[in-house]
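ligand=adenosine-5'-triphosphate
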Amino acid sequence: MPIHVSHCCFGYRRRALVLADLTLALPSGCVVLLGPNGAGKSTLLGLLASALKPSAGRVTLGGLDTSKRRDLKRYRQQVGWLPQQVTPVPGLRVREQAAYAGWLKGLSRREAWDRSLGAIKQVGLDELAERSAEQLSGGQLRRLGIAQTLVHSARVVLMDEPTAGLDPTQRKVFRGLLEDLKDQASFVVSTHQTEDLEDSYDSVVLLDRGEILFEGSTISFLGLAPQQVASGRRAEAAYTGLVKGEA
Ligand SMILES: Nc1ncnc2c1ncn2[C@@H]1O[C@H](COP(=O)(O)OP(=O)(O)OP(=O)(O)O)[C@@H](O)[C@H]1O
């Protein structure tokens, strides 16, 4: 599956480049995207989602290239995006919003409606199917965002800080959900939380000021922590060492 980013450049309007000549292969499985504030994580996710267009370089999934108009629709059907804020669509109920997302990705109304029930069941929202999406809590809204990507069977799901602001119980629900869905899709998740790294992710990408500081398996990332660091603190130590240039 992997998404390939080849020599991509991106800057907002006329400002300096946020990503300059970035090359990266995102493997299948669960990938965590780490980096300090302003590192370029959301920007990279925007490129991967094809919501942002690189000024140079290419983003590809299989044979599909986001710079080619004829590939774009199929690329977007295969890639789901959960932005930092999942917005409830005014007037829509939970199941309707999931179905609407499927329709926007090119499913027929009938197909989107039929698939929506299974998708909200998978994220544990079926009991709230008839509730207005505007009445959901932050954690429930993010689960609805995941359901939206399941309706159109995305092969890759991109998530921008999906657990930010969630309480520990909701974070655990999210981790469980990721575990349950692992066989169904690949995930690229940007986060500042390093505690769950070992249990939840197969590989790590660490970005700082638009540059890749680390790209590889979670095991090799944890191996960068100094030997004496206790197992629960290894991810944080590896992260800090790389960002400070010590690892
Ligand atoms: N819409 C925008 N217009 C102009 N500059 C932007 C915009 N969005 C982001 N930037 C700038 O691009 C750089 C990278 O931002 P980005 O949001 O991608 O980083 P991030 O790693 O996701 O940060 P955080 O962890 O704080 O969410 C920052 O310098 C930011 O100020």
